[in-house]
Amino acid sequence: MQASRLENCSICGRLFNKSYSDYCLDCYKDIEQQFKLVAEFLKAEENRGATIAEVSEAVEVSKKRIKEFIRDGRLYAADYPNLGYPCSQCGKVIKRESLCTECANKFSTELNKSLQADQFREQMARNPVSVSANAQYWKLRK
User: What is the value of pTM for the model shown?
Assistant: First the structure.
């Protein structure tokens, strides 16, 4: 059995027993009400083409909260042609995650290069005069 943890609500700052949410019960209920407003608005056929800004203005829910609903998978943006938010890196409109495919691939490539360089440094530290290690150094540089 997990011990109870007291936390401060990330919205209002009140102390609460954190078990399932990052928010106190009152803030959680408020978020759920906001989600219902957004979901009901988007259910209407005439609103399916709305952007985040239009939804936000119509139901008086912040754009940030609507983006959270999409990122958390509560709203499936692929069902709505204009519902998207900017990539955290380049600003391209996306419908899931926080990076577009191009930025995610670039990040992955850079991360792999960095990991390879770290592995080479570790190998050189263990065996600094190895001829094969020096040969690998030139392969990494290409």
Answer: 0.66
Let me know: does 24 contact 9? Beta carbons within 8 Å.
Answer: yes
Measured CA distances, 23 to 47, 78, 82, 84, 102 (Å): 30, 28, 30, 25, 34
Instruction: Give the residues across from 8 on adjacent strands.
Output: 15
How far apart (Å, rounded) are the C-alpha atoms in residues 105 and 111?
10
Our CA angle for 23, 62, 94, nearest 5°, is 100
Alpha-carbon distance values, 50 to 60, 108, 134, 141 (Å) = 14, 33, 58, 49
Give the span between the Cα atoms of 51 and 88, in whole angstroms: 18
Q: Return the bridge partners of 18, or none.
A: 5
* Structure confidence by residue, pLDDT tens digits, 29-68: 999 999 999 999 999 999 999 999 999 999 999 999 998 8
